[in-house]
């Protein structure tokens, strides 16, 4: 891999769009569908909190789906390394879309049976995990290797737009027209995902072996055992997502601590997305960073610091038990809301920078024959880590101290990541011009 020509601009590099129209279509369809998916994430949390009044019940959404999602990520990676990756993505996206339609039907019919929502969100998690692993394995086949950092940053823009608009729209729609319309809008937006995938050519894995089933999963795990840089990248992300996720707190924060109800919840979800979006928009120079292991370390340490700051904002506020998720923004503590949103925006920016380098490291250092399996494991980490984080928050928040998960989690991230990177010199020395797994 040769060093790309230096860019003077800090603005995001759009070269992958010009080089690969197929990548652009995939990016666009994924982004539009992602807006709806993020709306549903927020809507489900608000719906379950409204039905139960329990943050623990909201956290249980992630806990219930964790094991099926892990299995789906591992086996989905095998599917992506065995069959046409385009076909695998289409089938998985169809399953996820049907689950969204079922959520909308339950809401319109006012069927408030809690376990139905747990089952459907688990089906969505399984399907989207397979889609994510397959789609990520496709990208290196659509753009040149030296453009992978730029492609990852463009993915950050897509994600940033989705998790900026999605939660904000969910907060407004839930407060204005109800849960039912929120789910329905997601079902419509989801159709864009098919547009992005259906226009791709057939993409079969290169150099794939004859191993199938869970023997192929084991083969991928063996590869990971001999890939210390990729392995540590996964571990760092698990630490960050386990101890640095506060999303299940947002309904309670909007109802009890900062106030402002569903609108505040939407703002808190959107704040991290704004940071993600801004860091992607000004990512033009990231493609020239060679020491990507050190860049990951620094970004994750910044993430831990911002999550610590979020907890410290909540610390002096206590809980006001008279609040409700249906309150208007006029009831909110606006200075606290601004500081909390700023901390979450910083966390979103730092996490996105880390994700750009982690994705680039894996896509450039891992052979195509096992890329689906590595992407499957990576997708499990990216989507499963937050669910472990939901469980962590659910346990810690049993103390009724809503500030404690973020303060404790931020401190754990800062200490654990510092020690792990210090103990792994190959990760610190990782060179993007000589990528080694």
UniProtKB/TrEMBL annotation:
Its main location: membrane. InterPro entries: MFS_dom, MFS_trans_sf, TM_effector. Keywords: Cell membrane, Membrane, Transmembrane, Transmembrane helix, Transport. It holds the Pfam family MFS_3. The chain crosses the membrane at residues 26-49, 55-75, 87-109, 115-138, 150-175, 181-203, 232-250, 256-282, 294-317, 337-357, 377-397, 403-423. It is found in: Cell inner membrane. One of its GO terms (cellular component) is plasma membrane. PANTHER family: ENTEROBACTIN EXPORTER ENTS, INTEGRAL MEMBRANE EFFLUX PROTEIN-RELATED. This is MFS transporter. It comes from Conyzicola nivalis.
């Amino acid at each position: 891999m040769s060093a790309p020509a230096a860019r003077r601009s800090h603005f995001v590099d759009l070269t992958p769009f010009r080089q690969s129209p197929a990548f652009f279509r995939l990016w666009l369809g994924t982004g539009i569908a992602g807006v709806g998916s993020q709306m549903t994430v927020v809507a489900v949390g608000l719906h379950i909190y409204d039905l139960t009044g329990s943050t623990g019940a909201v956290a249980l959404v992630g806990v219930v789906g964790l094991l099926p999602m892990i299995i789906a990520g591992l086996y989905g990676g095998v599917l992506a390394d065995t069959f046409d990756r385009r076909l695998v993505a289409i089938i998985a996206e169809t399953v996820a879309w049907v689950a969204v339609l079922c959520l909308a039907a339950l809401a319109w019919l006012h069927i408030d049976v809690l376990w139905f929502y747990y089952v459907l969100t688990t089906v969505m998690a399984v399907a989207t995990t397979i889609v994510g692993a397959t789609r990520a394995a496709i990208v290196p086949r659509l753009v040149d290797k030296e453009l992978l950092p730029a492609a990852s940053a463009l993915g950050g823009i897509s994600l940033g737009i989705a998790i900026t608009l999605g939660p904000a729209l969910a907060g407004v729609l839930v407060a204005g027209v109800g849960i039912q319309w929120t789910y329905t809008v997601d079902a419509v937006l989801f159709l864009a995902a098919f547009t992005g995938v259906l226009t791709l050519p057939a993409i079969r894995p290169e150099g794939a072996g004859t191993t199938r089933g869970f023997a192929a999963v084991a083969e991928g795990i063996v590869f990971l055992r001999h890939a210390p840089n990729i392995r540590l990248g996964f571990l760092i992300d698990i630490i960050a997502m386990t101890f640095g996720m506060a999303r299940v707190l947002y309904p309670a924060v909007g109802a009890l601590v900062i106030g402002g109800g569903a609108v505040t919840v939407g703002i808190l979800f959107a704040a991290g997305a704004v940071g993600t979006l801004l860091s992607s928009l000004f990512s033009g120079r990231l493609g020239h960073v060679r020491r990507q292991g050190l860049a990951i370390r620094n970004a994750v340490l910044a993430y831990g610091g911002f999550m610590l700051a979020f907890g410290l904002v909540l610390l002096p506020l206590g809980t006001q038990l008279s609040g409700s998720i249906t309150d208007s923004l006029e009831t909110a503590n606006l200075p606290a809301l601004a500081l909390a949103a700023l901390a979450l925006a910083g966390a979103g920016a730092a996490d996105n920078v880390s994700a750009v380098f982690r994705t680039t490291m894996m896509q450039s250092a891992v052979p195509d024959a096992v890329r689906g399996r590595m992407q499957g494991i990576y997708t499990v980490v990216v989507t499963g880590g937050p669910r472990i984080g939901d469980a962590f928050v659910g346990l810690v928040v049993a103390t009724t101290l809503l500030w404690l998960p973020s303060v404790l989690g931020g401190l754990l991230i800062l200490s654990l990541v510092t020690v792990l990177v210090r103990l792994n010199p190959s990760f610190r020395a990782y060179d993007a011009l000589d990528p080694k797994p």
